[in-house]
């Protein structure tokens, strides 16, 4: 009998916590709040969409500061400014052909730090041809 009393108390506690958590996600009129992405999160989403589409190179470059630095850890290529970044990516040259569909990469994780206004985007490039060589995972 004592074990079942503990079980009932435990279940009531779990139920209370669950209802409290559900109540915190509701507005005063009972409608569930919708999550609105922050300005930074929206900018990240726009960047990812622009990069995936590979249509508007000037818009893509607008996300970067003039003193951007990029280091390709696999191939050892590095850039120290926006002009070098533009030459590195150069979508209009037609050197890149995506082999596995339309997506440039698969998105695995996006970590956003609102206070520092930083984001880490982790993903994997799909197979692609670059200047006649097949690259990718």
UniProtKB/TrEMBL annotation:
Gene3D superfamilies: 3.10.450.50. Keywords: Signal. Residues 1-30 form the signal peptide. SUPFAM superfamilies: NTF2-like (SSF54427). It comes from the Bacteria. InterPro entries: NTF2-like_dom_sf. This is SnoaL-like domain-containing protein. It comes from Pseudoalteromonas rubra.
């Amino acid at each position: 009998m004592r074990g079942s009393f503990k079980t009932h108390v435990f279940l009531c506690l779990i139920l209370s916590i669950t209802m409290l958590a559900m109540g915190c996600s509701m507005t005063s009129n009972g409608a569930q709040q919708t999550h609105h992405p922050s300005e930074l999160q929206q900018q990240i989403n726009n960047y990812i969409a622009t990069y995936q589409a590979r249509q508007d190179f000037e818009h893509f470059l607008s996300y970067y500061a003039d003193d951007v630095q990029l280091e390709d850890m696999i191939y050892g290529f590095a850039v120290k400014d926006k002009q070098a970044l533009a030459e590195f990516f150069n979508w209009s040259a037609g050197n890149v052909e995506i082999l596995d569909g339309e997506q440039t990469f698969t998105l695995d994780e996006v970590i956003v730090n609102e206070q520092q206004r930083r984001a880490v985007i982790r993903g994997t490039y799909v197979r692609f041809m670059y200047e006649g060589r097949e690259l990718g995972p």
